[in-house]
Amino acid sequence: MNWVDAIGYLGTILTIAASAMSTMIPLRIVALLASCAVITYGFLIGSMPVVLTELIQIPFNAFRLYQMVRLVRDVERAAEGDLSFDWLKPFGQARRFPAGAVVFRKGEPATEMLYVESGLFRIPEQAIDVRPGAIVGELGMLSPGNRRTGSLVCVEAGQARCIAYSEVKQLYYQNPEFGFYLLKLTSERLFQATRDADRRESVPAGSEVM
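RESULT FIELD:
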């Protein structure tokens, strides 16, 4: 086997390795390396169809790698303190809600969570207002039977991004690190809700907080 064949076999091995990977970032990196090896082999043997095929695949793999790296970076930054969920917007579909609309009811099947972009929403069972920049409905993904743990009503007309649980699960399977940070963020939201509830109970009725 000469060195030209060795490059070709290397490209084949890397392509098979990429196909066997389940996490997205290593998969894209190995796929890019495989393309480079196959392109080199194609040039050496004078096969332009092979070269052209890999040249077409490289931008797709590079863009997907960039997306996933940016996603992990943004989620990590959010988990470190600012609790921003802006990184979820590209994965949701915009939907407008009029004032008075019941978005979902407690006990209903849950299939998606919402990122609030404008307006005002409320969870009546807990008297919690959900304002722009917050997510709501994520607990349905974690609850037994995927049931809503509370209702959601639109108080002031607004818009929300609806992100299907299937989309969130896909992101998790592609990159387990994403799932870790999402769980951390969701837990922090639960702690925030508990602190807010304790604070409301500690304030006497009719008093004002200055």
